[in-house]
Structure formats: C-alpha cells, structure tokens
C-alpha cells in the first residue's frame, strides 16, 4: 500500500481494512465500529495494518466495557448516597433504631428469600453436576482472602476489635449485585464476545444467580461468625459468663461456704446426731423449706452440662436462616417432583415461589441503603484508616484477582471446567469484586466497626469503578 493510504487509514474516523475471508467473522464478532471489506484486486494486505485496526478496535471496545461496568457501580453508589441522605440529621429517617429493624428484616426475611428463590429457580441436577466447580472456586476466594486478611492484620497491626471486619472484607466479595448487573449488561451488548445475546443473557443470569446464592451462604456462615467472634460485646459476655460460672463453682465447693448453706447445716446436724459420728450414703439428703427432698448438687457435672448446652446454642447460630434457605433451595431445585410443584409458570404453588422472589428482590437495595446510612460515620474516620484501606484495596484488586487467574487457568488446563467462555469469565470475576455489602449489615448487627466498615466500602467501591473494569477486560481476553 502507498504511504498516502497509510495516513488516511490512521487519521480517518471511519476506516476500512482488507481482511482474509476466514477472519471476517472473528472481526465482526469482537470489534464494533470497524468497517470491514474483503481482500480484492492487487492489494497487498500487510500485517501491521491489521494490527493497527485491532488495537484501535480494542480501545473502542474497552471504552464500551468501561461504561457498562461504571454504570453497574453507579447504580449501587446512587442508592448508597440515598441511604446517607435518609440517615442525615436533616431527614432523620434511617435512625439507629430504624437501621436495626431493617437489619433484622434483611437477616430473617429478605436474604433467605433471595437465596431460596435464586437456587430453586436456577439449580437443577444437571446444572449442579455441570457447575460443581463454582462452589469450590468461591470457597477458594474465602480461603485466599482470609489468609491475605490475616497477613494484613499482622502488617498494619489492626486493633483486635476490627479483626473480624478485616477478615470479612478480604474474604467476602460482592457476589450478589455486581455479577447480576455486570454479566447481563455485557451480554446485552450488540457485539458481546460471548455469542448470541439471548443465550448469553440466560446463561449469564443463571451463573450469576448461582454465584450469588453460594456467596450469600458463605457470607452469612463465615463472615457472620467471624465478626461475631471478634465482637467486643460477645467477648465481654463470654468473659462475664465464665467468671460467674467460676465464682459459682468456687462458692459451692468451698468447705466454709458449704457449712454455711442450708443443706450443709442439715448434713452437719445429721452427722453429729449419729452415735458413731458417721453417715450412710442413702441418708445424704437435705430438706428445703417447703418440705421437699433436695439432692445435693454435683458441681463438676453441672458445669460440664452447662458448657454442653452453650455449645449447642452456638451451633444453632451457625445454622443461619440463609443457610437453611440454601438447603431448601438446593433440595427443591434438584428434586424434580418438588420442582414441578413450586417452580415454573404451570406449577401448582407458583404463587408461593413468586412471593418469595418478590421478597428476595428487596435484599440488595435494603443492604445498600444501610451501607449508605452508615457512610457518615465512615467519612469522619477515613483519614485514620488509610493504611488499612490501602491494604484491603491491594488484597481485593491486586492479589486476589492474580490468585484467581492462576486457580481458574489451572482448572481449565486439567479439564475441571467445561469449555464455556462466559462460565470461565464469571469464575474469574468472583476474585476481583469489592467487599460484600453483607459485611456492613453484619457489623451493624453487632455494633462493631461500623464507621471503619463504611470507610472501607466507600473507598473500595470508588476504586472498583476503574479497577473492576480493567480486570473485566483482561478476563475476557483470557477466556476468549
């Protein structure tokens, strides 16, 4: 080609290029805004011209992808701002008591309904077999995030009462609202890299729903208990219970206190009344004022029994409403007989399923509003948490995505994942998400680190507008 043609090719806004017939579909599929024609005549197609058009088209596609990801983040940020306004003194709608009540609704009603409806609607026995790697991949994000969070705690020297918050933010990603908005939005693009728009949207919604359901289950099972364990309120209560139990044990076993007790006095009287000064085991009993016989307590046995009861109560906490909802959703999804009764337009109890779906739709907006309501506290203390915030940003948007690429690419290499670029993209996306909004809800429930959590959420979600877009672009390049 002549030099004039080269200049015209670079400078014109609307340009064309000669490409091979076999490459035509490839260009039309991935790059929009480029006018393509077939090679003809005596024109000599040179490789650097093709590379030039490819780079320019990638830039155009990157900006489209950037706008999609930015729009998804902006939806959450706008609801967050609304929550902050509702909690401001001028409006005073989301007060402290109101936030606690909304938290209770999210924990006991909205989130379980969302998890149940998502799992029962999207999961079948075939999909469970096909997508078996996704729960393991999400578990990998929690394991890697927890380890990195532990390193961050040691490096930054985080105060003890914030350990649960840091571990939760590093481990739990926003597997709910972001995949449900980013993945379908990418599929709706006219020239999306994942093929047919309708098929991409249907599969992408199923992958995102499963990701959300599994992520919610992990978040409420892991993050909830981590924050609870490190909560000063729970720790102080445990110390008080232990000290009171020890004091009671000492008072009942101390000989002097035993002599002063009513039962001890009766025993001593009976013992003295015996001619030989002894006492038979069958006569070891005492009378209480109402005349009933009372068997003396066995302190060690009673203490062990109380500890067993406390452990059983703690096990009940692990079985959160969201966990029960996940179990029910999986059961109904994979059992065809139950699925026909509840799921589908022709199902007998379809109205029940639709009702739970409506309740579940309120989960994400309610949590984002609560996040915004706590935002004012975060703005006041954001300056003191700069090292911690920077560390969490590095963990969530640098270290974890790099680990995710290694895990997913290894799984692809060993044929553990079926060859579906969209499915692989969703798996990679799970490692590059900002902290889960549910962390803010949990900190609100226990009243620990609310201000710090709001500051972390504000900084990470602001950075995700750019960093998440960059990772999405890289992930699509890796799977296509």
Itemize the secondary structure elements and their pairings:
Elements: H1 3-11, E1 16-19, H2 24-30, E2 35-38, H3 47-87, H4 96-122, H5 125-130, H6 133-156, H7 163-171, H8 177-187, H9 197-230, H10 232-253, H11 255-260, H12 262-273, E3 286-287, E4 293-294, H13 299-318, H14 321-334, H15 336-342, H16 350-361, H17 363-373, H18 375-380, H19 386-413, H20 421-429, H21 438-446, H22 450-479
Parallel strand pairs: 1-2
Antiparallel strand pairs: 3-4
Helix pairs in contact: 3-8, 3-17, 3-22, 4-9, 4-14, 4-16, 4-17, 4-21, 6-7, 6-9, 6-19, 7-9, 8-9, 9-21, 14-15, 19-20, 19-22, 20-22, 21-22
Report on this structure.
The chain is built from 22 helices and 4 strands. It has helices at about 5-10, 25-30, 45-85, 95-120, 125-130, 135-155, 165-170, 175-185, 195-230, 230-255, 255-260, 260-275, 300-320, 320-335, 335-340, 350-360, 365-375, 375-380, 385-415, 420-430, 440-445, 450-480; strands at about 15-20, 35-40, 285, 295. It has 3 domains: about 5-45, no CATH class; about 70-235 and about 320-480, Na+/H+ antiporter like fold; about 240-315, no CATH class. About 75% of the residues lie in helices and about 0% in strands. The chain is mainly α and about 475 residues long. The strands form 2 sheets. It has a two-stranded parallel ribbon with strand order 1-2. Involved in cellular auxin homeostasis by regulating auxin metabolism. Regulates intracellular auxin accumulation at the endoplasmic reticulum and thus auxin availability for nuclear auxin signaling. This is Protein PIN-LIKES 1. Belongs to the auxin efflux carrier (TC 2.A.69.2) family.
